[in-house]
Structure formats: C-alpha cells, structure tokens
Design goal:
Layout: H1 7-18, H2 25-45, H3 47-62, H4 69-82
C-alpha cells in the first residue's frame, strides 16, 4: 500500500526517527496506530466511568463547587509533584 503524507506529517515522522526511537517510517506509523487502538479501546471500555465523572463534575459546578483557574493550576501542580 502506498500512502501520501503532507509535508508536516513527513517532518514529524522524520523527527521521531532522528530522535532514535524508530528506524523506519513504518515503525512510526505502526506505533501511532497501536496508540490509536489503545485509546479507542480505553474509551469504549471506560465510557460509562467517563460519562459518570463528567456528570459528577457538572453537578458539582451547579452546586457552586468549583475552583478558580489559579486553584486548579495549583492542584494539578501538586499532583504532578506527587507522581
């Protein structure tokens, strides 16, 4: 199968190969498709949990239980340092 890529995509593939993560464009595309499949699997398997969390968040916002942007950034920064 032959495919045509736009120049920006070709450059992205080339950058990945230059970083030493892949030895061929085929490997880059294969990895990208594997990640896409994994994301779709995760979304379909966890769809209800994601939906429930979104609904929970909307309900909390409706009750006025929200954070300012600064508070949210602080919470996220704290979580990153714990990892």
């Amino acid at each position: 199968m032959a495919i045509s890529l736009d120049p920006a995509t070709e450059q992205r593939i080339q950058r990945e190969m230059e970083r030493g993560h892949f030895t061929s464009p085929d490997e880059v595309v294969s990895q990208a498709l594997d990640l896409l499949d994994a994301e779709r699997d995760w979304m379909s398997e966890d769809r209800q949990a994601i939906h429930d969390r979104i609904e929970e968040s909307f309900a909390a916002a409706a009750r006025g239980e929200t954070y300012t942007p600064e508070q949210a950034r602080g919470i996220l920064a704290e979580r990153r340092t714990r990892q």
